Amino acid sequence: MKKLNKDSSVALYQQLINEIKESIQTGELKSGDRLMTEGEFSKEYDVSRITVRKAIEVLVEEGILIKKQGIGTFVADKKLTRDGSIFMGFTESCRLDGKVPSSRLLSADLSEASGVDQRNLNLEEGEMVIRVRRLRFCDGTPTVLEMNHFSQKYAFLLGANLDGSLYEILEQHGIYVVAGKRKITICYATKEEAELLNVNENDALLMMKDLCLDAHGEVIHSCKSIINPQYYDLTFISSAERVKWEKI
To answer: Which pTM value belongs to this model?
Structure first.
């Protein structure tokens, strides 16, 4: 029997939360592992089922555990956590989260700009756009299907290795994304999206549309991302709360 410190000022449910988190961090519990039942936890740690239930509820709310009706409680797959209020590339987001980014280039070409491209990129009719379509992986898991459109002045991208970070390539040319406009909606997986992201057709996904800007407010590119929310958490932090939040 494992003992919690009943004389501690730390609540028993919080001690149990810490025990479960430590088991996940050390690898004793891995993604997809099934946890003990409430009764088993109660016996193992000599605490009430109410204490166990409270600890599990907190961990489910934090996305660390997931409950499956009639089956049990499992360790959730690790998600990429990204601050949606900051315009940051996928590669940098992964690295900051301690994860390994990678990409598969699906296509890259030069095509005539559509009406949407003309509006988003401030182009004239008949101008060309660079289209880069990639599948982005986080720790080897397909997480984001990404479509980037650039004006023709960024044609140097077609000669670069597009399996890495586009932003690192841009920065090598003195071009930096510092701000933008973002719209997030729900979409439903097409057959191709389902195959690429390993989900079922018509599953709910996130669609994020960005217009990415430089320091002068000029559009560098547009980006549409189809995101599997099973592996991706978006958090929005207001500037007034940012310092406070980062201390938590």
So the answer is: 0.68
